[in-house]
Amino acid sequence: MSSDIGVVGLGVMGSNIALNLGDHAFRVAVFNHTTARTEAFMQQVEDRHSFQPCYDYAGLCAELQAPRIILLMVTAGPVVDEVIASLLPHLEPGDVIVDGGNSFYRDTERRYADLRGRGIRFLGMGVSGGEEGARHGPSLMPGGDPDAWPVVKKIFQSIAARAEDGEACCRWVGEGGAGHYVKMVHNGIEYGDMQLIAEAWALMDQALQLPEEEVADTFDRWNEGVLSSYLIDITARILRVRDPDGELRVRRILDSAGQKGTGRWTAMDALELGVPLTLITEAVHARALSARKPERELAAGRFGSSALLPEAEVKDALEAVHDALYAAKIVSYAQGFMQMREAAEENGWNLAFGDIALLWRAGCIIRSRFLNDIKRAYDSEPDLANILLDDFFSAEIRRTESGWRRAVQLGVGCGIPLPALSSGLAFFDAYRSAVLPAQLLQAQRDYFGAHTYRRMDQPEGVFHTHWTGDGREVQQ
User: Fold this and answer.
1) DSSP state, 204?
2) For residue range 293-345, what is the model confidence (pLDDT) as tens digits?
3) DSSP state at residue 169
4) Among 11, 57, 18, which Cα is nearest to 36's?
5) 3-state DSSP call for residue 121?
6) List 109, 175, 183, 199, catalytic entry
7) DSSP for residue 9
């Protein structure tokens, strides 16, 4: 009996997706470059009839029905190219390769163009949800060769997470590297969300000095309102786990955050596109700064810490922290969708932003109630330039703005770093300013480099001032 799909790479994500496929009545051919891993996988499966172990690429391809569908769950980078090169001698025109790893979207564009020329249909599919999502329903973001989507649609929509309305969190994203690009931005937003929550915890713990149980209870309560999300939920759970001696486990975890690079990719791409991705970029920098543990310990010994907020202000301050977290979250998503909009224009992708929000409602790390509001915003105005300009989100920002400012002031006053909350507020203040001090920047550029400038009262002209001479202005 031939298999419906092949899975290459049986690490945590690959093995769990293979099991997920088996649960949905697909016969799966599995392969790993180490035979021991393949054998270990087969020993853990309950229904061995759903899986066919393969021990080389020829055997894997021979096991698959035409057109072959092969899902790669291997380390992003050169390994993907090596696996594709090993598969090619055993494939035929019309076969489909799907890269489900965290590949850089430009690598996906290159692979798509190369394989299309060979008659092989290639997809780059973002997969989010971690181990649990892979096993029971991830968010899937497929892009690449449009001809491949009808071939794999049934399989991947079957195993994807389901939102509350029953829709599969798996839709066609766009041609070329669009799928992996959307996953990259998803991960950037994830960095922002996580940093914002960590900063809110720091304010409650260090500035307000709330009892530990009260902090966990607060996150639980917030999870029932506008902040309802997977990350808020797991934060409340994390803040209840204690070591055998009663100490909170999280307090003994080394405060040096890791990263796998997708957040940096998002920030670097935003710089290339000229998109002001300030909050997410600050979240990336915050992780980099956390890794400088020895330096921070030296600085702590030299500079000490600041005073705490008076106890009488705690209740009002807690509401301010809630509002700040919510408002900054809106800005984080606004920036992420700005970036995708710019990238779509740059790369000729027809991204459906409302549908992208739907993809993230379940299965993925940033799943939240909030995404339904983004979907409604784009349904109301498909060409919306920024979700901050949507009536709902505008009203929410106006409602929470004063609390946001108070929370940032609290952090500044207590010496608590709030890079994401404060940079989000700075972005909002700049975005809503009809006139910015960039006027002076342009004058400075013209002074030292004769870079010229435009005038607000004469928008069609380009001018230069003889700053070191007679101050005369000339039109270029």
Assistant:
1) I
2) 999 999 999 988 776 666 657 888 999 999 999 999 999 999 999 999 999 99
3) S
4) 11
5) strand
6) 183
7) -
Count CB-CB contacts under 10 A for residue 206: 17
- The predicted-structure confidence for 379-415, as pLDDT tens digits, reads as follows 999 999 999 999 999 999 999 999 999 999 999 988 9
CB atoms inside a 10 Å sphere around CB 77: 14
Residues 6+ apart with CB under 8 A from 297: none
Alpha-carbon torsion (250, 253, 256, 260), positive or negative: negative
Tokens of 18: 């293979």
190 an active-site residue?
yes
Give the active site residue among 109, 175, 190, 199: 190
Q: Measure CA 119 to chain center.
A: 32
> Is 315 a residue of the active site?
no
**Among 35, 23, 207, 176, CA closest to 99:** 176
Tens digits of per-residue pLDDT, 242-296?
999 999 999 999 998 887 778 899 999 999 999 999 999 999 999 999 999 999 9
Q: For residue 70, list its beta bridge partners.
A: 6, 97
Cross-sheet strand order for the sheet of 458-465:
453-455, 458-465, 473-475
Please check whether residue 169 is in contact with residue 258, taking contact to mean a CB–CB distance below 8 angstroms: no
Please provide the average confidence, as pLDDT, over all residues in the chain: 94
Inter-CA distances, 30 with 37, 89, 121, 427, Å? 10, 18, 20, 48
Which DSSP string corresponds to 408-448? HHHHHHHT---HHHHHHHHHHHHHT-SS-THHHHHHHHHHH
Distance between CA atoms of residues 115 and 92, nearest Å: 11
Which is it for the CA torsion 354, 355, 358, 359, positive or negative?
negative
Residue ranges in 239-369 assigned as alpha helix (H): 262-273, 278-290, 293-303, 314-347, 353-359
- Report the relative pairing of strands 51-53 and 28-31 from DSSP bridges: parallel
Distance CA 92, CA 303 (A): 66
**Using CA atoms, how far apart are residues 130 and 152, in angstroms rounded to an integer?**
21
CA angle 105, 8, 155 (to 5 degrees): 80
- If you search the block for the tokens 């759903």, which residue do you land on? 50
CB within 8 A of 240, min separation 6: which ones?
Answer: 213, 216
128-131 contacts at long range (C-beta below 8 A, 24 or more positions apart): 128/183, 128/186, 128/187, 128/360, 128/363, 128/364, 128/365, 128/366, 129/161, 129/363, 129/364, 129/365, 130/365, 131/12, 131/13, 131/16
